[in-house]
Design a protein that fits this description.
This protein has about 100 residues and is α+β, with helices and mostly antiparallel strands. Helix content is about 25%, strand content about 25%.
């Protein structure tokens, strides 16, 4: 899985690149798994300045936060009440099991 970029702040260009480019200020990832009819979701946002050795779980957030920062509406096909409830929760216990 490749994380998707965030362009929230200007970042300096890569020093050894000779073509115009834009460096992301961070990255996001949403993991959704359907298990026996239940949709389980967890989300992560990692800033460009985060240490490479920082545990993924330290960057846990909500889908609402990813949507706010990316400008996307990720689970728009769900009924509004289900979407709102699912996107507002960090789901730490499930994310810890997924990250290990």
């Amino acid at each position: 899985m490749v994380p998707d970029p965030l362009y929230e702040a200007p970042m300096p260009p890569l020093s050894k690149c000779d073509e115009p480019h834009k460096v992301p200020s961070g990255f996001w990832k949403v993991v959704a798994v359907e298990d026996a009819g239940t949709l389980r979701v967890t989300a992560f946002v990692r800033g460009q300045g985060a240490a490479r050795t920082s545990p993924v779980i330290d960057h846990l957030t909500t889908v609402d936060e990813v949507e706010r920062r990316s400008g996307l509406d990720l689970f728009w096909q769900l009924p509004d009440a289900d979407e709102a409830a699912m996107e507002a929760v960090k789901n730490l216990a499930w994310a810890q099991g997924w990250c290990n």
